[in-house]
Specification:
Helix content is about 25%, strand content about 25%. It is of the alpha+beta class. The strands form three sheets. Strands 5-6-2-1-16-15-13 form a seven-stranded mixed sheet. Strands 7, 8, 9, 10, 11, 12 and 14 form a seven-stranded mixed sheet that branches. Strand 10, helix 6 and strand 11 (about 235-240) form a beta-alpha-beta unit. Helix 6 runs parallel beside helix 7.
Length: about 350
């Protein structure tokens, strides 16, 4: 059995992670720079703002399977995958509120990622404790980023979708929430809003209507929140599992964000393994129910339900489907922790 930290130990670690931070490095220069020494390329790059690496990962809840698919067998693989991807900001889905050992599943996830140098933006959770896939979280690399303290509102939180959309949820389609955090790049001072989302997978017409309705509510919430804080042009990253395929739902949740000025990180000029899907289930491997020994390589663009969408970024630099594969194309089991694949993106954000 793998030893699991107690709830008390994890909560102490969480509290510490929320307050730990490194000071921005002091300036090393003392004199003015002459015009002849200015590198125009460097100046142009500086104007674009710092690079920001983002990732989203649906880690598959504790009930995803037994044996090698049990959470006990996957937990260290999940942390290893996130650590190897090396993103600054990580949106996590399906770190749930149910118990795992003597602690909650989400606190076990947080404890593992704290050891990788991350802090959790907030510890708010829903009340659902069994058979849930609705929890979302934002993690950030605490050596490079910090929460923005403001008199205009909280630094981070959890927002119920039903509170925004009104009635319509219930039955087989339960209410969901999204997590958010205002973060600051320590060395440059660049600020942005990170949002972690997991929309319902229901494939009925009602499910699709609620997904689109939820996306519109999130978009409107973002606009209102930025206006209230006096920062309408602040960069925003919406990351997560929208449960919306472009081929199946061309007018789905992703389209709501596109119309609101969000750019799909998949549009980045540099792409790494774009022909692999973000979720490991398709017509070619249905018998594996999301856990095939080898990911399917599409002849063109891979199917996507997980997205990193950004607005007010100065440049999309890179998109990546993060995979660790053997020479024969099969998964390396040390990094095989979910039925989804982690995706990441690098963008530049302006200093506002």
């Amino acid at each position: 059995m793998i030893a699991v930290p107690t709830r008390g130990a994890i909560m102490l670690a969480l509290a510490g992670a929320l307050t730990i931070g490194l000071l921005a490095p002091a300036s090393s220069g003392t004199g003015a720079t002459t015009a002849s020494s200015v590198d125009p390329t460097a100046s142009a790059t500086k104007a674009l703002g710092p690079k920001l690496s983002l990732a989203t990962y649906n880690i598959c809840n504790p009930r995803c399977g037994s044996g090698w698919k049990s959470w006990e067998k996957r937990r260290l693989k999940m942390a290893r995958t996130v650590g190897a991807a090396g993103a600054d900001i990580v949106a996590i889905q399906e770190a749930e509120n149910q118990y795992y050992g003597e602690t909650r599943h989400w606190t076990d996830v947080a404890g593992l990622l704290i050891r990788k140098g991350y802090a959790i933006a907030n510890t708010n959770i829903t009340e659902c404790q069994t058979f849930c896939t609705r929890e979302t979280h934002v993690f950030y690399r605490r050596s490079r980023f910090e929460l923005v303290q403001s008199s205009s509102g909280d630094s981070a939180g959890l927002q119920s979708l039903e509170d925004l959309t009104g009635p319509g949820w219930g039955g087989s389609i339960s209410n969901r929430s999204f997590s958010w955090a205002f973060l600051r790049h320590r060395s440059s001072g660049a600020e942005f809003l990170a949002v972690s989302v997991h929309l319902h997978p229901n494939e009925t017409a009602r499910g699709e209507r609620l997904r689109v309705r939820a996306a519109r509510a999130i978009r409107s919430w973002i606009d209102r929140e930025l206006t209230l804080r006096g920062k309408p042009g602040l960069p925003v990253a919406v990351m997560g599992d929208l449960n919306s395929f472009a081929a199946r739902q061309p007018k789905g949740a992703q389209k709501v964000f596109y119309r609101a000025g969000f750019r799909d990180s998949f549009q980045a000029r540099k792409k790494i393994r774009p022909n692999y899907s973000t979720v490991n289930i398709n017509w070619n491997n249905l018998k594996y129910a999301g856990w095939p020994p080898k990911p399917y390589a599409y002849p063109g663009e891979g199917a996507r339900v997980d997205y990193i969408l950004v607005r007010n970024a100065s440049r999309l630099v890179q998109y990546r489907t993060f995979l660790r594969l053997r020479k024969n194309g099969r998964f390396k089991n040390r990094f095989r922790s979910s039925d989804h694949n982690l995706i990441s993106a690098v963008v530049r954000i302006p200093v506002t």
